[in-house]
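User: Fold this, then the next.

Assistant: Folding the first:
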Amino acid sequence: MINLFHEGHSGINNVKKYLFVASLAVIMHSVLVCGAVRPDDYYTEPQVYGDRPNPAGEYDLGPIGASGIMTRIYKGVVVTVEETQPNTPAHGKFNKGDIIVGVNGELLKGKNPLVVLGMAVTKAEATDGVLAFDIKPGKDSAVKKVTIKIPVLGAYSKTFPLNCAKSKKIIKQAAQFYSGKDRLKSHDLHNALACLFLLSTGDDAYVPRVKEYFHQFLNADGSVKGIGDHSWYNGYNGVACAEYYLRTGDKSVLPILQHYCDDARDRQAYGIGWGHWGYGVWPAYEAGGGMMHAAGNQILLTLVLGKMCGVDVDEKTLVGALKHWYRFVGHGAIPIADQRYWHIFRSAGRDGATAAVMQIASCAKGDASIYKQAHEYLSMSALTSWPERQYNFEVIWHSISGANVLEYDPDLYYKTQQRFIWNFNLRRQASGAFYAHSDHPSMNPTDAGVSLALAHTAPLKNLAIQGAPRSKYARDFTLPAHLWGTEADRAFLSAKHNKDFYKYGKEDEMHILFRQLPIRLQYSPGDVKGLSLNMMLRNVRHWRCA
């Protein structure tokens, strides 16, 4: 058993304070939920996507595509204009407080407004560029029509983002924005992702910007400066730094990569993982010993990339974490901390990030079959978790690792991409940047939007974590052929249904399983009362549930 209060943890008083705050948050959440308006009382159609505004709350929608209209959704799903961006089609045609009730002849009421608006933008960009909005200047005002015209980019191809002229235009616009001279100034998560995106385009024109970014963290003598002990920042930047080296062979950045690997060794807790930041951990955090796997994922990925790049990686640190993460694969979604999984299907991006770990690990010399099998399972998990693709880290890693499914089931990948065309078009701003809705106050939506840009470049396979051809600067490395469990346990790594699955009927759409099956850690017998016996018998044989 882990000793939660061993030397090196924060004090007991701090733990008590944390528990008090956590308990108070649970009580307040219960009070709010009890008095909230149920979504079923507003929506007239079944929920398909996780990204759907709650009628009882507010939602920062942001842009309606390249129109320049910036919006917020208020209680009752009231889509309201907040402002219009200068030099855009909407500028000067709308006022703050205007309520959007319909677009191109379709009313929003009772429907997911994100999908309706996104589909309208999709059709306009593919045809004549026309968006005709039904507007109420105030709640009690009469409806009037305001028509604007956005740029026509054409339609996404059926194999989007591959063989797609529209995708190429979008990638170029986004790369020009995220490589701007006013960007890439600070050592943080989103700038690391921007560097990954620029490298993933395959265009050498953006490589110098990535070099400039990392060189601001080097002193004249080549030593490292300005990098702290933030697990989120160090993990993502470690991945970007390694990818830059594998692309260019520029040894000047190796001291930075070495710094990230040494920091991972020094701050690892329990020999398995990492917290949010610093050297201490909150033992009660998420009831998992203070671990934060969503941050630790990228640190582990940095370590395996460090092996590929030839820097000094502490073997005990790497193998301890690799074994810890591996033992979760195939047993429900990878949890937030060292605990039982919360959800069979939803990992908030951790399955996708671990797929990237297994992608690099599968390049090890010798028998790497466990990593290859885990890679397939986790990539399929990331892609097929699309009904809950809304949280920032889900979008990041579904974008990056979901594309791996092209190797295993290209039709499934293309079908899933087509499902989200409305979202890609809705979130893309006139500037070329994307806008990722975030419930996290620390995240700037435009900065976070680079995760949607990565969905357009991931299949191009220009990054090692995306399955790029072996870099001429890569080193040979080895990893254990066996980490955990027995040979029989590898059956759980299968991404195929049980052989008897189809005896009980056709496969349900994934969003139906998400909404109807008892797939969370906490559920009651009443959760399955409405399910048919055949549905239960079939899906107990589903590869995600078995």
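Now the next one, as you asked:
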Amino acid sequence: MKKILVTGGCGYIGSHTIVDLIDNGFEVISVDNNARSRPHILEGVEKITGIKVKNYTVDLCIFDDTHAIFQENPDISGIIHFAAYKAVGESVEKPLLYFENNNNSLINILRCAEEFNIPHFVFSSSCTVYGNPDEVPVTEETIFKTAESPYGYTKQMGEHIVQYTVNSNKLHAVLLRYFNPVGAHPSIEIGEIPIGKPANLIPAITQTAIGKLPEMKVFGNDYPTKDGTCVRDYIHVSDIAHAHTLALNYLIDDKMDSNCDVFNLGSGNGFTVLEVIESFEKVSNKKLNYTIGKRRSGDVIAIYANNDKARNVLGWNPVYDLKDMMHTAWEWEMKLHNDKNMFGGKNADLNLSSTLTCAPIIITMFKDIPVTGNKDTRSGFGDGILEAARENKNIIALTADLAGSLKLNAFIKEFPDRFIQCGIAEANMMGIAAGLTIGGKIPFTTTFANFSTGRVYDQIRQSIAYSGKNVKICASHAGLTLGEDGATHQILEDIGMMKMLPGMTVIVPADYNQTKAATKAIAKYEGPVYLRFGRPVWPIFTNEKDFTIGKAQVIAEGKDVTIFACGHLVWIAVEAAKALETKGISVELINMHTIKPLDEAAVIASIKKTACVVTAEEHNIIGGLGDSIAQVAARNFPVPIEYVGTNDTFGESGKPSELLVKYGLDSDHIIAACEKVIARKKSNS
């Protein structure tokens, strides 16, 4: 059984392709950092196939992390590369984001394919490579016109990168230019899950019909087409998925006349936007609420495929028509709407109709919390220090041989003379940082949390804290979510160690946005600071503007129980609160990102309202956030308290998600703690 690596395997087309590959006898592993996808979708894949697919939550733009996947899986025999950002409109607004992500990830994958002698490569391209063609339908020989969007240009560049690469080595590749994949798997176990407001037509239609969106907008009705709206070629996602399997077999069977071939994947029929809406209305029996708006930048007038080559060479025969596409898309949307316990019995916060900017954070229903993406908190630090350095020339970054892991590459490129590489000499780094403050510099030390505290505690105490030096100690890879590196690196005592130092401010932000905001804030804050963040990709749900050092953030107001959480556990507490909400339990959730100085006023006000508390932290309950909350409660308003955190133990090597469950830091344990503390409150009354 040949092992195939699917990048972007948690995405829309990737997940359907994984199903088709398994159905055709392949072993599959996935890599997806879930920045634009949901990991829960692989549970749907498992329901269809009976196979649990391993996913590596890795950012392919980081070569070392990408390389590690291939080291662990030397038997990979083929790669299907989907992973890319794909929103045309967003690419116009943020072109550099698309050039960086889509091209760098492709280059890193090809570098690994070359190094590990992986012979078969399938590249997910797009009909956007044709630009505004002179005539339709387009064939594989149609000359590229200027791409109408940065997204389309990344696909043109991607094809050239693949072609030049295969011409220089033994790799063989197929480029699949597909048109507009729509619909859902016939089982309705997997389908499209847009992050934020949908940019594609079909999910915009279904979300409007179900009531998630008040109305949808048709972009332009003045094009030179039969009804004035754009013409597109729509193809069922399962047909697209099967084409990838056929392309892989085409490579494996060595049927190619050259080392790179290309195929159009479309139905061969063009439909206007209004024709698609009409088809949906007939299938769903729903009248769609839509308005006509201005043309959208990046849209081409009309494009559809000549698919003769794929039919004749690959043996590809699409089996679903437009009616099938609309039917399965609508069935999937209704399933998302009706099944509140989809994917393992937990509210999966799927298919949110928020935009890519955060809403105000204080809410009344946890289901209303918008998730605007997924990204590691250490990237928030890297982006934050870069922005802070642009504003303040005194900011200096120091690292102990971990510039890449701490996301300092952009800083180093822009400010090479403000970067100090200290090597694996953390104690020296702290001493250098303390000395730099004497000359008015603002040093940011960077390394893993274990090395930022345990290895150098004497230097921090004597050289930084004792004299109140303005050093920012920035610590990544904290807690159990470091994962496979194990107990020697998974420090669970650092918050306690640092908050005991007189004058030390301790901050543990919840997500990418808050870490970025905290990094910029501490640059303006006088005095030593310990900033703790992590490695895993995590939901983004806070607003940068809502962060203030020492000011607790109320995520939601409630009356039955208060959860005080910090770091990664804030989002897990959100998931727990959603489940408790369905049981009629009203949760007040407070993001206590600043452990010291603690917002005592917020603590007292909340516990007086709910009269019972659960604390949640990725840290030992001895000396952490829970201890700080308990001290305030004991002095001012004693209430029952339950603690969620590690309990006087070290960690171990394993997957982050599994470690959180084993050590009691998952949503189920928070739910149980809330129910227990409420029962204690009632028994005391």
